[in-house]
Design a protein that fits this description.
The chain is α+β, with helices and mostly antiparallel strands and 235 residues long. It is built from six helices and 14 strands. The protein has helices at residues 46-64, 100-106, 135-140, 146-168, 214-217, 223-232; strands spanning 6-9, 13-17, 23-28, 31-34, 39-42, 71-74, 79-83, 86-87, 90-97, 113-123, 132-133, 172-183, 189-192, 200-204. Strand 2 (13-17) and strand 3 form a beta hairpin. It binds thymidine-5'-phosphate.
């Protein structure tokens, strides 16, 4: 499968058309941004790690947790064939432990473990700064139907259940993560975008060391080493 025209360039990936109208090729970059693009940088080797980790996790979620995904085939270190979707403009965030914007918004110390995982939605809209919304807002904005939202929630919690256990076996705490879903041409909802250290918070279970993009967001140093370390836990 070959790339044809570039359809889109995002903050961390480029998307290309192929000869098959139902398939696209995504190409992962080393570019990193934070705070809605205000902070920019490069994380050397990130594209390769995110491509491989996302593909591996999506295949697991598909097989073990029965969540349909956009994944089709890894072409090389940075490029993957995926099913063409129209993205549901929702960022679906699952949290197991307080961190990041949850800690900031609600005045809860980072590291407080929840009795039950939480879910929240942001309206995926860079101009508005991805505002936090509830399900009724999502319906009012016609971002998805009630049935689609129910299915998205079911898939997101199932993904959390599977991934929490998966990472625990590898000495990693899955603190929180963000998912995006898309619709195939027949309307089927599938997990899309990526699952990577850019979109998840991973803490080492023993040292609580951050092994994700927070090292870049917060200028903690050792960014590349953290990405390599979390990738190493996968094998
Ligand atoms: P938050 O605590 O900043 O809201 O982030 C929650 C999770 O979502 C965290 O794992 C990082 C991820 N995330 C993204 O993938 N993209 C984003 O633009 C933001 C703000 C967070």
């Amino acid at each position: 499968m070959e790339k044809r025209e570039q359809l889109y360039e995002g903050k961390a990936k480029k998307v290309f058309t192929t000869d098959d109208p139902e398939l696209l090729i995504v190409s992962y970059k080393d570019d990193a941004t934070a705070f809605n693009g205000l902070k920019k940088g490069t994380i050397v080797g990130k594209g390769v790690i995110n491509n491989k980790m996302s593909n591996l996790l999506m295949q697991k979620l598909e097989k073990e947790a029965h969540i349909p995904t956009h994944f089709v085939e890894e072409l090389n270190d940075r490029e993957t064939v995926v099913k063409k979707v129209s993205i549901v403009p929702l960022e679906v965030i699952i949290r197991n432990i307080a961190a990041g914007s949850f800690s900031k918004n609600y005045g809860v110390e980072e590291g407080v473990v929840f009795d039950h995982p939480t879910i929240e939605f942001s309206y995926k809209n860079d101009d508005l700064g991805d505002p936090l919304i509830n399900e009724y807002h999502a319906l009012a904005l016609k971002l998805a139907t009630k049935e689609e939202i129910e299915l998205i929630k079911e898939y997101a919690f199932a993904a959390n259940c599977y991934m929490k256990a998966y990472w625990k076996e590898r000495g990693v705490i899955l603190v929180d993560f963000k998912l995006e879903f898309g619709r195939l041409s027949d309307g089927t909802i599938v997990l899309a975008d990526e699952i990577s250290p850019d979109t998840c918070r991973f803490w080492d279970a023993e040292t609580k060391e951050k092994l994700d993009k927070d090292r870049f967001r917060r200028d903690l140093g050792g960014v590349e080493d953290a990405y390599a370390e979390i990738m190493g836990r996968l094998s």
